[in-house]
């Protein structure tokens, strides 16, 4: 894997993924492109980038759709024509409203825009770079060494596994993202570009809370191992952080 772009790296899982990637034995990815929104809230990422030359922090808000095309051009220039091997759509939010009687229209719309619309539009903008990476590596097997999309999903997006109800905004946005991931896996298969939905587990983040059983490091280490081991058989799959298939 020569290059990977991860959205939402100022904290939590995004920052955790960057830390794991720079801790890998050689060869590490040549370019770890990590997006963040607010420099004041991204000091850990920016400090880490000073210590590792392969981390490229880029300020970008996934809700600024009018800037996607220019952002893709900037990344293309950075990669000097090599294309992008892995697009990891990680940025996401979880509304505070959970039960039906507390659910608010604005929360639903905002969550859907960030968790579903943004990953779809980001992928659309970066398909040319993923195609370029795939075309530049014609002998590489389908997977992250060639061209791969990873969408950060959640078991809460599983319809079959829903036993508790509630969480309307988050559940529906992740279910929709799963559907989009499946379509991506079919639409881009001819270009040898694969797509998977990945559940990070219940993790000790601002979103997951302190009672979660997994630390950020544990989840991210497992996710990186899973991503690096992806192959054509996983295309269009819904996987847990450790690679276990999950029900739709």
TrEMBL record:
It holds the Pfam family adh_short. The keyword NADP applies. The keyword Lipid biosynthesis does not apply. SUPFAM superfamilies: NAD(P)-binding Rossmann-fold domains (SSF51735). One of its GO terms (molecular function) is carbonyl reductase (NADPH) activity. GO terms for cellular component: cytoplasm. Keywords: NADP, Oxidoreductase. Gene3D superfamilies: NAD(P)-binding Rossmann-like Domain. Belongs to the short-chain dehydrogenases/reductases (SDR) family. This is Short-chain dehydrogenase. The lineage of its organism: Eukaryota, Metazoa, Ecdysozoa, Arthropoda, Hexapoda.
């Amino acid at each position: 894997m020569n290059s990977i772009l991860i959205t939402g790296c100022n904290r939590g899982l995004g920052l955790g993924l960057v830390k794991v990637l720079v801790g890998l034995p050689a060869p590490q990815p040549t370019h770890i492109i990590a997006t963040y929104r607010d420099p004041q809230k991204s000091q850990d990422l920016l400090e880490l980038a000073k210590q590792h030359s392969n981390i490229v922090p880029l300020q970008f808000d996934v809700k600024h759709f009018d800037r996607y095309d220019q952002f893709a051009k900037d990344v293309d220039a950075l990669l000097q024509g090599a294309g992008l091997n892995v697009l990891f759509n990680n940025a996401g939010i979880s509304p505070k409203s959970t039960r039906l009687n507390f659910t608010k229209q604005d929360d639903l719309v905002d969550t859907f825009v960030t968790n579903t619309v943004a990953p779809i539009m980001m992928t659309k903008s970066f398909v040319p770079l993923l195609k370029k990476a795939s075309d530049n590596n014609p002998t590489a097997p389908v997977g992250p060494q060639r061209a791969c999309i990873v969408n950060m999903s959640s078991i809460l997006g599983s319809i079959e596994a829903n036993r508790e109800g509630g969480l309307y905004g988050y559940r529906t946005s992740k279910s929709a993202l799963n559907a989009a991931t499946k379509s991506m896996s079919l639409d881009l298969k001819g270009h040898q570009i694969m797509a998977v939905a990945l559940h990070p587990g219940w993790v000790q983040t601002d979103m997951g809370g302190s009672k979660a059983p997994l630390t950020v490091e544990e989840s991210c280490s497992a996710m990186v191992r899973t991503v690096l081991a992806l192959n054509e058989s996983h295309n269009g799959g819904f996987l847990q952080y450790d690679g276990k298939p999950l029900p739709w």
